[in-house]
Structure formats: structure tokens, C-alpha cells
Amino acid sequence: MKKVERQQLIRKIIAKSQIERQDDLVAALKGKNVYATQATISRDIKELQLVKVPANDGGYRYALPAQGEIDNQTRLSTELSNNMISLKRQEQFLSIIMHPGNGPVMASLIRQLEIDGVFSVIGDDAGVLIVCRSIDAAINVEKMFWNLMN
């Protein structure tokens, strides 16, 4: 199962069940024939921005954030517009220079979007290197990024 599908299932489980711990979520997924490690679920919880809220029994349970999920493409557009210093392409590589501290967020957003043609994304404090599967894919991704900024 793809990450996007697993995370959609997690949203449904969280909405319908009292999930108190990561182990409970692993078990709930297993009950639906989806096998994931606790480490994978931990990353999903972080990416989904799940929060713990008081449960009816006095404990705490996972819930979706109150403001709702922000569309990752909108977040990417905002990050590009507000924090990108430069975007360059050479062959099948794209280099994005960001204001310091914004590289990891940008790399994470690009990974979450699972953009067609992107092979790998590497981010550091102020930069992101995107390795595309072909030169044409790199051109398409570059155009997409410029369009998101306009």
C-alpha cells in the first residue's frame, strides 16, 4: 500500500476509533491487512500533524488537527513564494536555494507530493537537490514550481 493510501486509512481510523497509542494504530491497521512498523506510523503521525486530545475515558487519543489539513500543494506554493532564493536546473537535477532553515520543510513537502518524474529529494538547512528520472521530467518539475509561484 502506498503511503498516501495508508495515511488516508489512518485518517479514517482516527475519525472513527479511540486510538490512544501508536501501537493501537499499528494494530488497527493490521486488522485491515495493512502492515506497518511503529517507526512508519510515527512518521505518518508527524506528517499528518495528528494531535492528542482528551478522550471520553479521561485519557488521550489521536485526532486530526483542529484547523484541518492544509493542502500540501498550497503549502509548497507558499514555501516557494516566501522562502525560495533561487531555482536552477542542470540536466535532470534541480537545485533550490532557500532562506536558512527552510530546506528540510521544502524537501519534505516535495517528498509528500510524490511528484511524477522525481526520483529522489535531498534537503539540508538552506537547499534542496531534486534528482529527476529524466531531463524532460526535470523540465516539467521546474515549470510546475514556477507556475506554483505565479
TrEMBL record:
Pathway: Amino-acid biosynthesis; L-arginine biosynthesis [regulation]
Location of this chain's protein in the cell: Cytoplasm
Residues covered by the Arginine repressor C-terminal domain: 81-145
Positions of the Arginine repressor DNA-binding domain: 1-69
Cellular component GO terms, alphabetical: cytoplasm
Keywords: Amino-acid biosynthesis, Arginine biosynthesis, Cytoplasm, DNA-binding, Repressor, Transcription, Transcription regulation
Principal cellular location given in the protein's record: cytoplasm
HAMAP family, sorted: Arg_repressor
Protein's job: Regulates arginine biosynthesis genes.
UniProt record similarity statement: Belongs to the ArgR family.
Record PANTHER family: ARGININE REPRESSOR
Protein's name according to its UniProt entry: Arginine repressor
Organism (species): Limosilactobacillus fastidiosus
Organism lineage string: Bacteria, Bacillati, Bacillota, Bacilli, Lactobacillales
